[in-house]
Every structure is written in structure tokens, then in C-alpha cells.
Amino acid sequence: MTEFNPRDLADLVLRPIVTEKATLLMEQNKYVFDVAVKATKPEIKAAIENLFDVKVVKVNTIRPPRKKRRVGRFIGYKPQYKRAIVTLGEGDSITLFPEV
User: Fold this and answer.
1) Cα 13 to the chain's mean position, in Å?
2) Confidence grade of residue 100 (pLDDT, cut at 50, 70, 90)
3) Which residues, including other chains, have CB under 8 Å from residue 52's CB and lie 6 or more apart?
4) Predicted TM-score of the model (pTM)
5) pLDDT by residue (tens digit) across 34-60?
6) At a CB cut-off of 8 Å and minimum separation 6, what does 49 contact?
7) Domain residue ranges in the chain
8) I want to staple 32 with a disulfide (CB 3.0 to 4.6 A). Which of 17, 47, 70, 100 is the partner?
């Protein structure tokens, strides 16, 4: 397996996603994160394991198509993004809300 630089890995995971669907996935020990578009599955796995000190079993990624947006007669696009659904090992968990 390739060794990854821990400093580079921290930049790959942008933010956790807290939506109704993502919260329901947490019950199955799955967590959703916004990640850099260039990030690969092994890099995402290494980053989550390094940042949160957990064992990652599986990583699924989503890169939906860009949506068109219009302002008057000008057509543009919303920015491209990538999300990762990370499945953790049995007994591991990530605390997204420390005070709650």
C-alpha cells in the first residue's frame, strides 16, 4: 500500500455533511463528507483513518453532474463537488457534535 503524507491528507476532507439523509446513514455507521474532487478512494480512506483514528471498511464516492444556472441571459454552472460515504468498522464512531 502506498504511504500518504498526513499533511496532504488533511486537505482532502473538506467538511462533514449534516443532512437528514446523512444523519440516517450514521445509524448504519456510515458518515458523509465533502472531499476534494481530485481525491481517490485510498486517499480518502487514509485521511479519515488519520484524522479521526478509526478503521474504515469501505469508501463510496459520488460525483453528481453539474447543474446549469442562469443569471439573465448568461448561462453558467454550479461548481463541481465530490462526496464520500465512509463505512466504519464495528465499534468505531466519529463524534461530529461534541457538545450535544
Assistant:
1) 6
2) low
3) 94
4) 0.85
5) 999 999 999 999 999 988 999 999 999
6) 55, 56
7) 6-88
8) 17
Residues 55, 49 contacting (CB under 8 angstroms): yes
**DSSP string computed for the chain:** -----HHHHHHHEEEE--SHHHHHHHTTTEEEEEE-TT--HHHHHHHHHHHH---EEEEEEE-PPPPEEEETTEEEEPPP-EEEEEEEPTT----S-S--
Cβ-based neighbour number of residue 24 at 10 Å: 10
Q: With contact defined as beta carbons under 8 Å apart, do 69 and 18 qualify?
A: no
Q: Considering only CA atoms, which of 51, 68, 70, 49 is closest in space to residue 59? A: 49
